[in-house]
Amino acid sequence: MIKRIKALCVLVIVVLVALSSNFNVSAATLVGKDLYTMKNVSIEINGKKASIKSSILNKKGHLLLPMRELYEALGAQVSWDPKKKTASSIRNGKRVDLTINSKTAKVDGVNVSMEVAPLLYKNRTYFPLRFASENFDGIVVWNEGKQKVEITLDQSNGSNPPPTPNVPEGEKYTLYINNQKIMMDDPVIIKEGRTYIPAKYFYNYVEDSSGLWVSDRVFEMLLAGLSFQFTDGSNNILVNQEPVSIDEKPFIKSGEMYVPAPFLVKALGGNLRNLVGRKEIYITFNDYMFYSEFLEKQEGSTPKPQYIPNAQLEGSRNLLVSDNPEKINAYMLYGTTATLSMQEVQSTTATNEHRVFGWHLNELGTKAKIAITIQNISDTNSIKITNSKGLAKTSDNSWITYNVGLPIADSLLNGKLKNSESTGIVINPGETKVIEAYDLAPEFLVGFLQDIDISSVNGGNSKYIIRTVLAQNDEDLTKVHSDPISTDRYAHPRGAWPQSTLKTEIPAYTVGTPEVGYNLSNGQTDHLLTAENSLSTINGSVGNPGHFGMTYKVSIPIVNPTGSPAKVKIVLAGRGGLYSGAVKMNGKVHLIPTLKPSQEYVELPEYTVSGSSDTINLEIMHAGGANLPVAVYVESVE
């Protein structure tokens, strides 16, 4: 039930000082994993000490406040949904929904990521102060010396608009749009809690987009097939020539049309995260995450499948897997740099094909950078990167298979890996060069897949080392030549193997007979990437029974005794845990949503067998983070 309180004072919040700072352990008590109660923190609202009776918490350097007590002090409407475990607040028509243990909040219906999830402590909802500072309307200052939170409110009760606080214009922001890193030349501006960005950063960095000035005050932008027409100072815009009234007002500054990022994210579907303290903005548009459509999830059980009879490796592209240790923390490192995986190559072949697949979570508590490097250890022959393309995704939430694993699988099966600037570089004897590098914020996971072709320039033998390396303090990544750090006890794969494609043919299915099913990546009959046959074993190798970073080709022979047209269908289901991935059937790629084992499945489009025999060809790539095995079923359609 919504509790109505006194009229709301407008709260306008902008981070003036980073709110995640070190704190004195002697002034805190450990009450849970990485969770402390703070003894001497006070809160002031407009210079007066607020009465907050509940504890104030600190989790991983982030202050968490009791939501209801703070909001009631501000005069808000607060409600609690016990089934969804969601706390909601409404202030001046602005709604914020926070769900316990979820790093995704909703602000006026738009998904907004949080660095620390809300939590329950002694039956009270706590939320991070930094989140409030980035999404509410007012000014908050963290006074570390006095251990005090100072909140300044506008007391006009909405009769006069509060002053518009802007991010200091001398500070540069880093913008990530669909995982593209962009160093902004223009300031980000926050008005009434809404983030505004120059339109050029959308139409210049989002595929198949454009923008043009219609007049001195009107700017039109084409994005994801939609036309948006913004007018300076007006909240009335045109979407595909239809008038729409929004809460935000675009405006012109320094010759650029500033457009509201939350509106665009909500209109197109996606996620927005503005880390004011770190001067970073992350924007993801769902329409640009995937090339393929999702198959419809079906509910129901599937029969127990049998193992596929056998499988074999094919192709000439090597596979280097960098996934162990998956979680990287300071206790694993002997300094501020490390090698995570490596493969030494000595070859007489003119061109060598490689694939590097990586999957790592940053638990160092500080920013880090991970890179793929190649060191030429030949004394005489230079090598050249004749082809380099790949994809990397990062995420700090729990649905990494959707944000990271699926886009990589989708891009690979569609042949849409992005060309890399490392194509064409020459590495002379004794040199080391970076092929691709990835910035990784604390508590972020990165998944990457890079295909690299390496040729000998002089026609002689090639000798080189491929590494995945890490640096915490902007060290020169080309200087990291150490052996890999030791593997941990968890069963995440690490090693190098001679092929990155697997193929199998299941026994022929006869139309009209009962359904049959076979388990792929079952750890038994198709486990060909073992620790023992890894090409790199320094400081440990762990097998890859889940075939991460690989494509799995499945041939399904069909026998049709009558010769008359008959229909069959293919069903896919997870058998070991939550599963998702991508599958190509006869040239078309489909995405497999997250499936509960033995409870959910997907059906591929029905296939018509027109003669007495036929073959259905599948190519499957498991999403990083998925659980294996996955079962493939064949059945007749009446």
Automatic annotation (TrEMBL):
Superkingdom in the source lineage: Bacteria
Keywords: Signal
Signal peptide: 1-27
Domain Copper amine oxidase-like N-terminal residues, every copy: 45-151, 172-203, 229-274
Segments passing through the bilayer: none
Name recorded for this polypeptide: Copper amine oxidase-like N-terminal domain-containing protein
Lineage: Bacteria, Bacillati, Bacillota, Bacilli, Bacillales
